[in-house]
């Protein structure tokens, strides 16, 4: 007559027996307050009987409260007449009396009950139970429950996707409640466990795809893939919710933690094992991690940009490894927008368009601080390069151009002084030139998309800096395009069934933004416009040389050719240095040349990255003069062959006399210089 799980055939008698049993348990729980039973009731052998009995009766509730807030408290009448409500009330009392030492003993039987009765899928009852647990225990013990959920997730890591998704959703509910109070030392543990299971889910998904592609088609493969996506979305949602409720100092640590897990070239710090994922799995895990990072960075506000985008975070974020796919590039830009938009202007810039009056947007901005200026001097070229190369990708869609436009606009609002404005205009003109010349063989839609992006940005920046002559030039070009080449404007090119031109070579220059006109207009307003005449060239990185992306490799080769003679080297022979047989033999010997070339390239890249712009420009000019002098020397050079195979070779020119070179047994045919 005290069996809380009674299955008597008479419903009324069954209810009475269950109520009597639950009241007996409730009496035992209340007696523990001032009784010696307090120490023994929490032992596992007792909890394994008490907790499942209560849960068994709680399952009979027909409508489970699934709201975010705490479950509603039962009325006095329900407590007396309904076994399910009485069991829930007793369960609350039991958890409310739990202490640090016995909390886990009360929670673990819940997992066993849910596993045994397969209540993770669907998981409404599981969510209901853990809401009761989280709201009933003392707040300082919340992290114990979270640790138990994480441990159970690890134990069930090979279960069906929907079971794992059910556990993760329970974790989300627990974290949502714990985040309002104290979550203790489990912050990194939560993220580390979730990221580990994210990798496992992607690995399972990749294995299923490989298994389904061999032999007969598995009809369950698509269903399994969709189930794994449910797991991945649940993980990302949990990471995002948890991260967005952390204080800023902890959130910045989590941002670095997640970024350190993203597989990118040249970093060995990430601890996610991707050896079994393959290219498709690696791309998938990159997307999942960036989506997690996007949710964590949402709403993050830093006083200075260097706090939000330190070098250790920015370098892997802008890595070419994360530019191989249009979706990856979108996520990278969106993460950057979250961290860069400190005055909530992004919503006003949504969509790429020609804005008639930027003042109507009521853009919020502050004076650029010294730290932000320093950040742009150090990292500006890196940002420009990412935007420049991102515009020239063949798989870009409209959203990519919209995000690139927003990036340029946010840099202008948040980080632009006069020097940065000039650099951004140089970047825009370089993009226009690349679309016209089309060295990358982009489709016509992408070329027109770049032209539209440039038009939208120059219209925005001209109004932001409010230089009348500059605004007039931009407005005139846009007006001519509206009448003669509407496909160069965002409102038309991104519209369905837009007519595209067959080529861009025959267009009049009135359709383009001209550097000399812009320089003239800005120079009249006090801007330093000397650098506008120097074409923008993207910054070089070490990863470019190993990248499969043709456009980057070509750019690197061009830059190394241009700058190679600007690097001082001890191996360079001066005009008056003695040329000996050993020197010639050493020059012919190719051993070690690879290392020397590698070091030489490194010096070139480092010089290009760190040297001031004025210094590089001056050296390019000096190189041009040097080439002119060298050409004059070559034209005057004469070579007199030796009279015999063992003679000497004498080299003379109009500017220098070299010492004779012993040739010993080297044989020379008649030499001619053309």
Automatic annotation (TrEMBL):
This is EFR3A protein. It comes from the Eukaryota.
